[in-house]
Amino acid sequence: MIANQSIAVEFKRVMKSFGAKRVLNDVSFQIGQGQALCLLGRSGTGKSVTLKLIMALMRPDSGEVWVDQQNVVGIGERELSHVRRKLGYLFQDAALFDSLTLYENLALPLLRLTKKPKDEIDEVVQRVLTDVGLGSDGAKYPSALSGGMRKRAGLARALVLEPKILLADEPSSGLDRITAAEIDELLKRRKTEHGTALIIVTHDIHGARRTADRVAVLDKGQLVAFGSVEEVSQSENDVARRLITE
């Protein structure tokens, strides 16, 4: 168990169905601040739904979803907005605005959601771009970026508001193994240097082994394994064991 004051995200007996299909069935887990959790499972097993429940883009049929000590199930929009400010989201396709430069993509949430003056926004944007290795690319448009650069840019935008919790949907998708490893190292550095909690949906077992403090395996709506990579690799559940050792 994690000391209560350090829990970043906790699911308590969460159920979620779409029609007759039970996507999450009595799922409970917790991850601490400064830890990385990788969600593994075959397609359609509820991994992306888990991220949407954390963001409160969906609501569970029953159960509780706690984000930084706040149960987001059933709270009002004002409280929800406050909780979401603590979350960053790295989309699978980076989700950049093509009509804006990289600098403008990062500055936009700071302009909309903070009262920082322009010189401070400039400083924050430059620092975050430098952190992800794009310090000299702020004037470029997304169309001029390679796949790896776009992923770095998406990560930079997810981090520009200094989230306590970073959600990442397939961060290595579409990348070669070397670039994928570089993205994993950026995520690990964020966790280590800033104490950010990471919740990563991935099919990349190599990436999970590099980044995860804990691994959660979902199968047919059930959380069939939860623990360290080593613990899950020795799981009695055949699906979990095969996923982590393949």
How would you explain this protein's 3D organization?
With 246 residues, the protein is of the alpha/beta class. Helices cover 38% and strands 26% of the residues. It has two domains: 1-86 and 164-179 and 196-246, P-loop containing nucleotide triphosphate hydrolases (Rossmann fold), CATH 3.40.50.300; 94-162, no CATH class. β9 (214-219) and β10 (222-227) form a beta hairpin. It starts with 6 loop residues before the first strand and ends with a helix. The mean pLDDT is 92.
In percent, how much strand structure appears in the residues?
Answer: 25-35%
Given helix and strand content, the structural type is alpha/beta
CATH architecture of the largest domain: 3-Layer(aba) Sandwich
- Biggest beta sheet summary: 6 strands, mixed
Fill in the CATH topology of the largest domain: Rossmann fold
Number of helices: 9
**Silhouette:** globular
Widest sheet: strand order?
6-7-8-3-9-10
Q: How many structural domains does the protein architecture include?
A: 2
Rg, nearest Å = 18 Å
CATH superfamily placement of the largest domain: P-loop containing nucleotide triphosphate hydrolases
Quaternary class = single chain
**Number of β-strand runs:** 10
Helix content: 25-40%
One letter per element, helices H and strands E, the order comes to: EEEHEEHEHHHEHEHEEHH
Poorly predicted spans: none
Mean of residue pLDDT values:
92
End-to-end gap: 29 Å
What is the CATH top level name of the largest domain? Answer: Alpha Beta
